[in-house]
Amino acid sequence: MLAAAIAAILDRDLRALRREIEAYPDERRLWELVPGVSNSAGTLGLHLAGNLQHYLGAQLGGTGYIRDRAAEFARRDVPRAELLSQIEAARRAVNTALSRLDPAALEREYPETVGGVRVQTGEYLVHLVAHFAYHLGQVDYHRRVVTGEGRTVDAVRAVELGTARAPG
């Protein structure tokens, strides 16, 4: 159940990231830096897609994805189409890994040392959701600041959760 819930939330949030990226009227604005902020929305998009493709796709789903974390933060002016393609690849990685995950694996140690420590897989999956949400909010604020548009893309919709049902 936990893996399915995490998959649903990450899928919802990846779709929200896609809407955020698509909401920039000019794709060059994706790469603008705001004073006092070190990452653009484009950088965060690459980072979020790479993060999930590595930690879920490669580590739990066996996709063979090879992460270049430094490039996630160093690349600039990546076309919007490529960013969207990476987001879709992350969606596939999440679905592949979490649909096959043995529920007993949630209680076991995550297969990779993270930040110099070993953690339980279930706890690490919850961490990945929180990490994604943190950066998704940054993308939303970045878009609003650089475009001057205050509208939302309705990023965190409960109706998009895997167990969402009409009342009654």
Could you list some keywords that capture this structure?
about 170 residues; single chain; Four Helix Bundle (Hemerythrin (Met), subunit A)
Question: Can you give a write-up of this model?
Answer:
This protein has about 170 residues and is mainly α. The protein has one domain: Four Helix Bundle (Hemerythrin (Met), subunit A). Helices cover about 55% and strands about 0% of the residues. It is built from five helices and no strands. The protein has helices spanning about 1-20, 40-60, 70-75, 80-100, 120-145. Helix 1 (about 1-20) runs antiparallel to helix 4 (about 80-100). The mean pLDDT is about 95.
Architecture blueprint of SSEs:
Layout (H helix, E strand, L loop, with lengths): L1 H21 L18 H18 L10 H6 L5 H21 L20 H27 L21
Helix pairs in contact: 1-4, 1-5, 2-4, 2-5
